[in-house]
Amino acid sequence: MAAPGENMKIDADRLWDSLMEMAKIGPGVAGGNNRQTVTDEDSEGRHLFQEWCKAAGCSMGLDTMGNMFARREGTDPDALPVYVGSHLDTQPTGGKYDGVLGVLGGLEIIRSLNDLGVKTKHPIVVTNWTNEEGTRFAPAMLASGVFAGVHTQDWAYDKKDAEGKKFGDELKRIGWRGDEAVGDRKMHAFFELHIEQGPILEAEGKDIGVVTHGQGLSWTQVTITGKDSHTGSTPMPMRKNAGLGMARVLELVDEIAWSHKPHAVGAAGHIDVFPNSRNVIPGKVVFTVDLRSPDLSVIEDMEARLKSGAQKICDDMGLGVEFEKVGGFDPVTFNPDCVTAVRDAAERIGYSHRDLISGAGHDACWINRVAPTAMVMCPCVDGLSHNEAEDISREWAEAGANVLMHAVVETAVIVE
Question: pTM here?
Answer without folding.
Answer: 0.90
